[in-house]
Design brief:
membrane; chemotaxis; five-stranded antiparallel beta sheet; 9 helices; about 675 residues; alpha+beta; MCPsignal_dom; six-stranded antiparallel beta sheet; Helix Hairpins; Beta-Lactamase; transducer; about 10% strand; cell membrane
């Protein structure tokens, strides 16, 4: 076969293999680079999370130790008696000051502001009631109050946990525990994040408590409330997460944790946006080397494969060239013991071999088939001539029958078109019904939500009414007790009146005795003058006692009148309170009835919701079926119209076919002549 001036597929194969390999290598390299960089970013982010978590856990442990210390102190008998013995409490505080390096101070204050502290002296005349830790604890009595972190005299950051409580005599007391953040500062110093990471702990007002690391850090005590990182953390609605600053990237995202909504302590960690520069450069360099090496290997393999494939294609081409000239020759098999090239091995006919081996087998089978076909054509050409006449007669009969079928199909097409239009109208109507059902379904869902909300409000109203009823009964009991106390006081006033009457009698008798003594003193002459003076003084005292008892009687009478009025008003209040109790009971009964009715309505709405869902599901099924019917009907209409048109074309084709059948005999004669030209080679 002459190959001069022909094109070769070898270069194309090499180009395709190189392009595919290059694309695969680049894709793999880019994917590896991206996944590796993502892993490095995740490593840094995990380090940031771990560092912040460690700091927050340390802060939580600090809070728990202070909380436990305050609770343990409060359980001591010194704080649960009838009074607070400050001297004994001072000794107790001294013993509790030691044993925990995180706790730098414990102290106690009574409701007069007098305070004692363990192993330390407090300023003279200090009123603890003016201190924030005292005010905060009293404001939330019974629970531990935490002050905002602040710097003490030594310069370290501390926070105060204080607890307000009452003893058996209902006297208020406040325990305070100072905890130091120095342990957290030591923890932060030992944390490491990437190459340029840092960890910062600050208050929720932006005051830096500790900042350590290899990257950007802040001086202790600096306020960074105006900084971008603080504003980003403050404005984030999440308690923890990542925020990206302006000019930053995925690498430099800041991780923060606010612990809880009302926490005064925030922690965040950050790294420089160039933190992964060293790893990135190394990754790019290694990826480039890998790409070059793989391209060289791929090129060598591609060149070798292309040469072998070209040899196999040339061998097949030589046999196809002989076949094109009518020389049908089969590809010979390799003889046993004969040394063959790689091309001969891969083109050796073998049904169980590789693709080219099976292609050689297929080619030999094609040669065998063509040989048999040539022999058959030579023998069957005569029969073709004989059947041509019979085919002409059949074609004329087919033409007549096709014409009748065409008329029938045209009628079917008209009926199917009408049916398709009616079905499409039914689908439109069902769509409108579906929209109505959907609107009803949405209304039912809204009604269901509203009934649930109403049930919740009714339940809340019933609970409130029960509390009001209980509180009002307690109030009536207290008013009855008050009335009894006023009645007792009125009785005591009557007893005082009796005592005053006795005093008045004694005063009158004393006055008479003093008068008699004056008379006797006058009778005694000069010797009785001294006794007369005493008698006169006794008469004055008796008169003063009489005047005083008269004033006391007026006061007692006023008290009695006021107490009587109070008893009457209390009776009126009790009677009104009884009516109010009846009204409250009536309101509770009505609310219960409304709640039960609302629950019944909720049950009905749920039933209606279930039914509407079933209706909507059934409507969707019907709509789907009807749409399928409509689509099928339209397809049938189009098909019948197409069949009608095709039948007319078939009719014309049959008529044309009848004209050509006459030429078939002539073609059969030519076919016999041409088949005789083929030569079958062994």
């Amino acid at each position: 076969m002459n190959t001069k001036g022909t094109k070769s597929v070898g270069r194309i194969i090499i180009a395709i293999l190189m392009a595919v390999s290059l694309l695969s290598i680049v894709t793999l390299t880019v994917g590896t680079y991206k996944s590796t960089k993502d892993l490095l970013i995740q490593r840094n982010q995990l380090s940031e999370k771990s560092a912040v978590t460690v700091v927050n856990d340390e802060a939580t442990n600090l809070r728990l130790s202070a909380f436990k210390k305050a609770k343990d102190i409060q359980k001591n008998a010194l704080f649960n008696g009838d009074s607070y013995d400050l001297d004994q409490i001072q000794k107790f505080m001294d013993s509790n000051q030691t044993g925990n390096d995180r706790i730098v101070g414990v102290y106690f204050s009574n409701d007069q502001g007098r305070a004692v502290a363990g192993l330390r002296k407090l300023p003279k005349n200090m009123d603890a009631r003016t201190r924030p830790w005292y005010k905060g604890a009293v404001a939330q009595e019974g629970t531990v109050y935490w002050s905002k972190p602040y710097r003490d005299i030594s310069g370290q950051y501390v926070a105060t946990a204080s607890l307000a409580f009452r003893n058996k005599a209902n006297q208020l007391g406040v325990i305070g525990v100072d905890v130091s953040f120095s342990a957290i500062n030591d923890t932060i110093k030992h944390l490491s994040i990437g190459r340029t990471g840092s960890v910062t702990m600050m208050t929720n007002q932006g005051d830096v408590m500790s900042s350590e690391g290899k990257g950007k850090k802040y001086k202790d005590g600096t306020n960074i409330a105006s900084s971008e990182v603080y504003q980003a953390i403050k404005n984030s609605p999440k308690l923890s997460g990542f925020v990206q600053l302006k000019g930053g990237n995925k690498v430099s995202e800041v991780y923060f944790n606010k612990i809880r909504a009302n926490s005064t302590l925030w922690t965040f960690a950050t790294v420089s946006k160039n933190d992964l520069a060293v790893e990135t450069r190394a990754l790019i360099r290694n990826s480039a080397i890998l790409v070059v090496v793989m391209l060289i290997v791929v090129f060598a393999i591609s060149f070798f494969l292309t040469k072998q494939i070209k040899g196999m294609l040339d061998k097949f081409g030589s046999f196809f060239d002989k076949a094109s000239k009518g020389q049908l020759a089969k590809i010979p098999s390799i003889k046993a013991g004969h040394k063959a090239s790689l091309v001969d091995k891969f083109t050796n006919p073998d049904a169980n071999g590789y693709e080219f081996n099976r292609l050689a087998v297929s080619y030999n089978q094609v040669v065998d088939g063509i040989s048999a076909m040539v022999h058959g054509l030579q023998s069957e050409s005569q029969r073709v001539d004989e059947m041509a006449a019979s085919l002409l007669e059949l074609s004329q009969q087919t033409s007549k029958a096709t014409e009748e079928v065409s008329q029938t199909i045209t009628g079917i097409a008209e009926v199917t078109s009408t049916q398709a239009a009616e079905t499409a109208h039914g689908v439109d109507q069902l769509h409108k019904l579906a929209e109505t059902i959907s609107d009803m379904r949405q209304s039912i869902v809204q009604l269901h939500d509203q009934t649930n909300d109403s049930s919740a409000l009714n339940q809340e109203n019933m609970d409130t009414m029960d509390k009001v009823h209980a509180n009002w009964n307690n109030e009536l009991a207290e008013m009855k007790q008050l009335m009894e106390s006023v009645n007792d006081m009125s009785a005591n006033v009557q007893n005082i009146n009796q005592i005053i009457n006795v005093i008045n009698d004694i005063s009158r008798q004393t006055n008479l005795l003093a008068l008699n003594a004056s008379i006797e003193a006058a009778s005694a002459g000069e010797a009785g003058k001294g006794f007369a003076v005493v008698a006169a003084e006794i008469r004055k005292l008796a008169e003063q006692s009489k005047e005083s008892t008269a004033e006391i009687e007026k006061i007692i009478e006023t008290i009695r009148q006021k107490s009587d009025e109070m008893v009457a008003q209390t009776n009126n209040s009790i009677e009104g309170g009884q009516k109010q109790t009846d009204l409250i009971l009536s309101a509770i009964k009505s609310t219960t009835a409304v709640y039960q009715g609302n629950n019944q309505m909720t049950t009905e709405v749920n039933t209606l919701d279930t039914a509407s869902a079933s209706i909507e599901k059934a409507q969707e099924q019907v709509l789907s079926n009807l749409e399928n019917i409509s689509a099928s009907t339209q397809e049938n209409a189009a098909g019948t119209e197409e069949v009608s048109a095709n039948s007319e074309e078939v009719l014309a084709t049959i008529e044309e076919f009848t004209g050509h059948v006459a030429d078939l005999a002539n073609i059969a004669k030519e076919l016999r002549k041409e088949t005789n030209k083929f030569k079958i080679l062994d």
